[in-house]
């Protein structure tokens, strides 16, 4: 983990993690909107909710039933403490919003990885 001294609740970076299904549905909604409009647009696809790196570790521990070992090392140059999407325009323009939270995201990821230990091979 890069950085444990950020001004965040647990000291680790906060990011907006999005379920791959939510992202795919957002892309489909954007393609549909592009077909129906004469103009392009910009929207952020995200949950609008920031989760810390430690939150993600805990969610994977819950999903897997196993401890997830980690080490906190120095920050990388340029990393910000917190960064997450503002998805309001996606709701207004596309009628889209993310449906899945971090626990579902990690559970689905763990289930897929467990069923496919070699990835797509």
Walkthrough of the structure:
By secondary structure, the protein is mostly helical. It has one domain: UDP-galactose 4-epimerase, domain 1 (Alpha-Beta Complex). The chain has 4 helices and 3 strands, in the order E-H-E-H-E-H-H. Strands 2-1-3 form a 3-stranded mixed beta sheet. Helix 2 packs across helix 4. It is globular and about 50 Å long.
Which helices and strands appear, and what pairs or packs with what?
Layout: E1 14-15, H1 20-36, E2 51-52, H2 53-64, E3 82-83, H3 88-94, H4 102-115
Parallel strand pairs: 1-3
Antiparallel strand pairs: 1-2
The major beta sheet can be summarized as: 3 strands, mixed
Strand and helix order: EHEHEHH
Q: How much β-strand is present in the residues?
A: under 5%
> Into how many domains do the coordinates divide?
1
According to DSSP, the number of beta strands is 3
> Whole-Å distance between the termini?
28 Å
Question: CATH superfamily membership, which one?
Answer: UDP-galactose 4-epimerase, domain 1
């Amino acid at each position: 983990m890069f950085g444990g001294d950020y001004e965040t609740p647990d000291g680790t970076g906060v990011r907006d993690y999005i379920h791959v299904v939510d992202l795919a549905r957002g892309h489909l909604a954007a393609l549909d909107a592009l077909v129906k409009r004469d103009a392009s647009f910009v929207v952020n696809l995200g949950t609008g909710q920031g989760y810390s790196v430690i939150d993600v570790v805990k969610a994977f521990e819950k999903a897997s039933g196993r401890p997830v070992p980690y080490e906190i090392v120095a920050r990388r140059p340029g990393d910000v403490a917190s960064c997450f999407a503002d998805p309001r325009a996606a709701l207004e323009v596309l009628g889209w919003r993310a449906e899945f939270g971090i626990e579902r995201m990690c559970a689905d990821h763990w289930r897929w990885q467990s069923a496919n230990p070699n990835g797509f091979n």
